[in-house]
Write a structure and sequence with these properties.
By secondary structure, the protein is of the alpha+beta class. It has a single domain, classed as Ubiquitin-like (UB roll). The chain has helices at 12-15, 32-43, 45-51, and strands at 2-7, 20-24, 63-66, 69-70, 86-90. The protein is globular.
Length: 96
């Protein structure tokens, strides 16, 4: 299964110069929670600190989209992924 992970704004540099990673998973079952665990393992402490709170939950102001749909309107971190999905991490946005 191939998944594309993208990040914008301040999260972009965590993923590298392009702000995008292509991940191949040997398992057929993959959800957002498992993907985050994989990314924490491979990207390190900075990714964890930016995305997760002190309890290991996705921070309230971080948006995660699967194919353009907010996971809050799907099944949250239990949202199942399928081959070809695009997962986007969007940092909090402020302005005035």
């Amino acid at each position: 299964m191939k998944i594309t992970v993208k990040a914008f704004a301040t999260f972009r540099e965590i993923l590298g110069q392009t702000g995008q990673l292509n991940i191949e998973s040997p398992t057929r079952e993959l959800d957002i929670k498992t993907l985050i665990e994989y990314l924490v393992e491979h990207l390190g402490v900075r990714f964890r600190e930016e995305i997760l709170d002190e309890n290991g939950m996705v921070k309230k102001n971080v948006k995660i989209l699967v194919n353009g749909r907010d996971i809050d309107f799907l099944n949250g971190v239990s949202t199942k992924l399928k081959d070809g999905d695009i997962v986007v991490f969007v940092p909090p946005v402020a302005g005035g």
